[in-house]
Specification:
Elements lengths: L2 H23 L9 H14 L15 H13 L3 H50 L4 H22 L2 H17 L4 H25 L10 H6 L4 H32 L1
Helix pairs in contact: 1-4, 2-3, 4-5, 5-6, 6-7
Length: 256
C-alpha cells in the first residue's frame, strides 16, 4: 500500500470513529443540564453581561469552563441543545488528540483502538449524565500537552517544549487535577539535571577538581602539572562524549 493511500485510509478510519462519537451523543442533545453545567452556563451569562468571575460571581472551580460556556452561548445561543452540541464538538477534538498521542506511541492500529476505547468509556459519564464536567474539558489539554512533549523530545524543537508547558497550564486552569501534567514535566526537567550530575561526576571527572586532588590537598599545594593534566583529560573526554551524542542523535533522526 502506498503511503498516500495509507494516509487516506487512516483519515477515513478516524472520521468513522468521530462519526460514532457524534452519533451516540446526538439523541441526548436535549438532556437537561446537571448542577455543575448549570453553574457554568450561569457564570458564562454573567461574563457576557460584563461581570468578572470570583469578584462579582463566585464558584470554586477554575476559570476555563466559565469562559468556554460564555463563548458557546455568545456564538450558539443559551439553549440547552446548543450547549450539548458544543460539548459534543469539544469531545471530537479530545478524541482526535487522543488518537494522535496513541499514534505516536503505538501506530495507526493502536491509535484507532485508543480512540474507540476513549469514545466508549467517555460516553457513560459524558454522554448522559454530565457531558460538560471539568474533567471532560481537561482531557483535551492533557492529551495535547503530552503530544507536544513527546514530539519535542523526538525532534528537539524548543517551541514544542514551551507549548507542552503552556498546554499543561491550560489543563490546570480547566481542572485542578491537571497539575499532574505540570508535575510530570517538572520531574522530567529535574531528571535531566540529576542524570547530568551523575554523568559529570562518574564519567567526566567532576569529582576531580583541577589542582585540588587528594595528593595535592595533602601536600597543601596546587601543582600546575596537575591542573593542566586534569583540564586536558576533561577536554578530550568531553569531545568524545559530545561526538558520540551527536552520532546517536543523527542516527535516530535518520531512522525516524
Amino acid at each position: 500500500m502506498t503511503p498516500s493511500r495509507a494516509r487516506i485510509r487512516e483519515a477515513l478510519l478516524l472520521a468513522a470513529i468521530l462519526l460514532v462519537f457524534w452519533w451516540t451523543r446526538w439523541p441526548f442533545r436535549d438532556a437537561v443540564l446537571i448542577r455543575d453545567e448549570g453553574e457554568y452556563a450561569y457564570i458564562g451569562q454573567r461574563i457576557l453581561a460584563g461581570e468578572v468571575p470570583y469578584r462579582d460571581v463566585y464558584n470554586q472551580k477554575t476559570p476555563f469552563v466559565f469562559y468556554a460556556f460564555a463563548a458557546a452561548q455568545a456564538f450558539l445561543g443559551p439553549d440547552v441543545s446548543s450547549l450539548r452540541l458544543f460539548g459534543s464538538a469539544y469531545g471530537l477534538l479530545s478524541t482526535s488528540a487522543v488518537y494522535l498521542v496513541a499514534r505516536t506511541a503505538f501506530g495507526p492500529v493502536g491509535a484507532a483502538s485508543a480512540a474507540l476505547a476513549f469514545t466508549a468509556m467517555l460516553f457513560d459519564q459524558a454522554g448522559i449524565l454530565h457531558q460538560a464536567s471539568t474533567e471532560y474539558f481537561m482531557l483535551l489539554w492533557l492529551a495535547l500537552g503530552v503530544l507536544a512533549w513527546g514530539r519535542a523530545v523526538r525532534s528537539g524543537r524548543p517551541w514544542l517544549l514551551a507549548a507542552s508547558g503552556a498546554l499543561a497550564g491550560i489543563a490546570f486552569q480547566t481542572k485542578q487535577s491537571g497539575a499532574v501534567l505540570l508535575l510530570f514535566f517538572l520531574a522530567e526537567w529535574g531528571n535531566l539535571y540529576v542524570i547530568g550530575a551523575i554523568v559529570t561526576t562518574l564519567f567526566l571527572g567532576g569529582w576531580y577538581v583541577p589542582g585540588l586532588s587528594l595528593d595535592a590537598a595533602r601536600r597543601g599545594a596546587v601543582v600546575s602539572d596537575d591542573v593542566r593534566a586534569t583540564a586536558d583529560y576533561r577536554r578530550e573526554l568531553l569531545k568524545v562524549y559530545t561526538r558520540r551524542v551527536g552520532q546517536i542523535a543523527y542516527q535516530r533522526a535518520r531512522g525516524s
